[in-house]
Amino acid sequence: MAVRTGNEPVTARSALRLRFWLSLWGMVWSGAGAAAFSLAARPGWAAACAAVAVLAAVDLAVVLHHIRQGPHYQPGRDIPPYEPPDP
Fold first, then answer.
1. pLDDT digit string (tens) for 33-77?
2. SS3 sequence, 3-71?
3. Is residue 54 part of a domain?
4. If I label 74, which of 9, 14, 59, 81 is the partner at 20 to 30 A Cα–Cα?
């Protein structure tokens, strides 16, 4: 087994599906909060919830883009990390 000198864990994986569901959950709840505060005549809270909903929607779009890109090549345990360039 080759020794890896990089600082990344060998089994590192991105939790894109979890991030997808969390951003969807946040978008739904903050959208509902914006609507409820708007009906309750609380424009400041409605604007804050709407801003969070927009941020969650942007995060959701980024996550979907990354999911659609598919898996990227990851070297195995037997491939050592790149050597640093000589000065």
1. 999 999 999 999 999 999 999 999 999 999 998 888 876 656 667
2. CCCCCCCCCCCCCHHHHHHHHHHHHHHHHHHHHHHHHCCCHHHHHHHHHHHHHHHHHHHHHHHHHHHCC
3. yes
4. 59
Count the domains in the chain.
1
- What span, in angstroms and rounded, lies between the C-alpha atoms of 77 and 87? 28
> Which long-range contacts does 30-39 make (Cβ < 8 Å, 24+ apart)?
30/56
Is residue 19, in this structure, part of any structural domain at all? no
Domain of 54, in residue numbers: 26-69
**Which residue bears the tokens 């000589």?**
86
